[in-house]
Amino acid sequence: MRFVSIQAHARIYHITTMCRVLEVSKAGYYAWRGRPLGERVQENRVLAAKIREIHAQVKGPGSRLRHPGVAAPTRKGAKYPQGHA
Asked: What is the pTM of this model?
């Protein structure tokens, strides 16, 4: 989470200052930034994109959860609170 915060605020604050305040090394931050996204993050992004697409097509309460084109495990589906998909 520290590295994500640094990346989110990089246009506002100096990376060196944020690394010092959050007690992480600059090398660690740049190494994290250079790594590819994890498999679960990629899967979650694909799922979120499908949910947004279906929601745009079908209006109605709960329609995106019952669409036949998307099968999400209960745990993963519960991880996305309403409005964050």
From this structure: 0.51
